[in-house]
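ok so i was messing around last nite and threw this chain in just to see what happens. nothing serious, just curious
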Amino acid sequence: MVQENELVTLLLGIGTIIFVLAFLPRLRQLPKYRWLLLAVAGQSGAWVFTILETWYYPTLFNGIEHFGYMICSLSLLIWIILSAQYSGEKK
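result:
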C-alpha cells in the first residue's frame, strides 16, 4: 500500500519538474546549470522509485531510490561549489 505522504511528495515533485521545464531558459543562465538539473532529476527519480518499490521488487527499487538521493546530494554539492567558484572569478 502506498503511503499518502509518499504520493503527495511525488505530486509535489511533478509540480517541481513542470516548474523547472517552464523556467528552463532562465535556469540556463545560471552557472553550471546542468549540475542543478541533474540534482532535480535524481530527486524526482528517487520519488518515483519510492512509489514503485511498493509494488515491484522492493529491495531493488529501494536501492535505486537511495542511489537517486545520493546523485541529487552530490550534484547539488558540486553545483554549489562550482557556482561559488564562478561567482568568485567574476569579482
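not much to say yet. Residues 21 and 27 are 9 Å apart (CA to CA).
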